[in-house]
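LOG
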Amino acid sequence: MRYIFLMILLLSSYSTLAFQVKPMVAELESSGSQSQQTIRISNPSDSSLTIEISAFDLLIASNGDETLKANEEDFLIIPMTTIIPSGKSQSVIVRYIGEPILENSKAYRVAIDQVSVDLEKAGQSGVGMSVSFRTLFNVVPKGAEAKLLIKNKRQVDTETWNVLLENTGNKYIRLSQAQWLIKGDDQELLLEGAELSKALTGKILLPKSSREVSIKIPTKFNAASSDLEVNF
């Protein structure tokens, strides 16, 4: 039991000292001055940190499964690899250089990965760990708009609905940033912010796509007899 406690303490301490990334979400235009974003990586730990940055296309299936496909062509990243000393920060420039004329917004994950350390080669004992961040970058054409349709909703259990959503517009929707209004039997419930994010499984709906999400709803609301509005 003592060893389990020590391992939990080690992981907690490591988590506290892990590097930090800002912003985690960004929206870019496909050309011009707004096609660039600066990421700030901070290293509050007591040792230097080696970081690698890479970009991936983000694909989301109708069941919500995410697929990442490496994409080295759509972004210019400076620097792609960097060493950040203890207590210091590093700015990384991420510039979209892909197709300048887009019909629909495109979603990407920009990965910030700590390079794993081989502790045996370093002459140390312990557990080698690495931390990764997956930021969300959306490249949006000017004038793009999202159009959300609620295709279906059904009761899964006493406190869970499955909701089938479709975005017929050409801009992504961050579902967790919307307002979900449930109306039924002279009662209303508004879910938004942290409460909505906690209750909702799916966080993003890409343009020209559909997906089913799950959401926790109090027992007093039934999917068949309640109305649902999603405003963003």
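LOG (cont.) second protein
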Amino acid sequence: MVFATENQGCWHWSIPWQLDAADADPDVWLTEDDAPVREEEPLSRFLLQFSLYEASMTAPYLAVLRDLPEQLLAELETCLHRVPLRSFLAPIVPTDFLVGPGVVAHVSPELNDGNECDVWIGALHRSALVPLSRLQLPWSRFDG
């Protein structure tokens, strides 16, 4: 049963569904180009990942880092904390999450170069991004 669709990447996620199934937390399958692969987390944790991903992309205020050298990621982690989940979208582009007061971020490796990553940080209030402004990072967008 398909239960989620991502319209930009054209992916969808499904779970095996049977009326009398006993599994309360099934595996989630990601389909891209008709080749289903299993996500790292079961449905309960996948739903949290999906929510964090969408929040980091669609918040009204954003801070974005493109092609960030991975060694600079440690500087960002002085303000934010890793979410203790396995990678989201692992079969395509393994994505991890960071959170802090009023902000949620996702970190994805740059597909063209294994030593760089893209970071999207979303916030409901502009003031939540202000603490990040002290970091000497090459922001491509900063709404704080």
